[in-house]
Amino acid sequence: MDVREFVETLGAEFYTGVPDSQLKALCDYLMQTYGISGRHVIAANEGNAAALAAGYHLATGKVPLVYMQNSGIGNIVNPAASLLNKKVYEIPCIFVVGWRGEPGVHDEPQHIFQGEITVPLLEAIGIHTCVIGADTALGELKQSYGKLRKYLDAGECIAFVIREGALSYDEKVTYSNAYGMKREEIIAQIAEAAEEDIVVSTTGKASRELFEIREANGQGHQRDFLTVGSMGHSSSIALGIALQKPGQTVWCIDGDGAALMHLGAMAVIGRSRPDNLIHVVINNEAHETVGGMPTAASVADLTAVAKSCGYADAVCVSDRDGLAEALAAARKRQALSFIEAKCAIGARKDLGRPTILAVENKAHFMRFLEQK
Fold it and tell me: Residue 78: which residues within 8 A CB-CB, separation 6 or more?
């Protein structure tokens, strides 16, 4: 189904959410049509989007649309149950949810359980669902939406759960920035600087690239925890390890979208002030793993945020020499350090995925930690 027909049928006038590769057609259409504006806001996380949608409804009386990957349902549980719900404020909202890990469809391990519980979880928090697939005709969509309208009219929420390939958009949208360093090169420099230290990497292409760098170097993966899911939580995982392994340096390879998603983690890290944690945020100002749509990191000064949160040292770099100097200084410093590395958008087309299971990564990593 052409995404323009989908959008026209739903008739929303305000859109907000977190980009998803399954919804790339919708995200590209919204960026091409509205950009970042009063009609379209890319949120920091899905709960943020639900609250934005509530504000829109309160101001206009109209029904907003929130888009997300199903991995973000956890972030909307609280606002859906305690803000939007008919037993609280009766705020109607249309959710459009990319269905990763759909039962019977091969997907990555972090999506399997989430895929199994997607529809029942939405229903459990009071959101009425309708599944849209590649074979769903426009007439079927209109008929389904007609039946669901009664819930919106009653102040309830509905969700269209989108299967792979259900939406299409024939316009090509390209995302880029002005930075020169490539993320894989940055991660390679971090891996070299870290030597035998502990490394926690964020979800998406960063962990995939770290895995392939280790393979190319003939190194094992035991020192790396590859956070294949839980976007925004790698820095908290790294903090938990650093506090229990005070004699070992812990590196966190983070992304700008992930850091923004749960920015409060930086305040907790700053308050804890572990002197063995080095937090590196690779900032390409984009949700690149799911298509390249922009994050708010283009206007947020993450280095200043780190300083204000209590990091002992925080620097921003944009070239290889500056990065090398910052990495060496952070490892030598023995104090909570933050490095923001400005990065170009883009990755190798032949970038693979880890060939070990998540549970195997955990077992190898824990054995490595036991020896430390």
Answer: 47
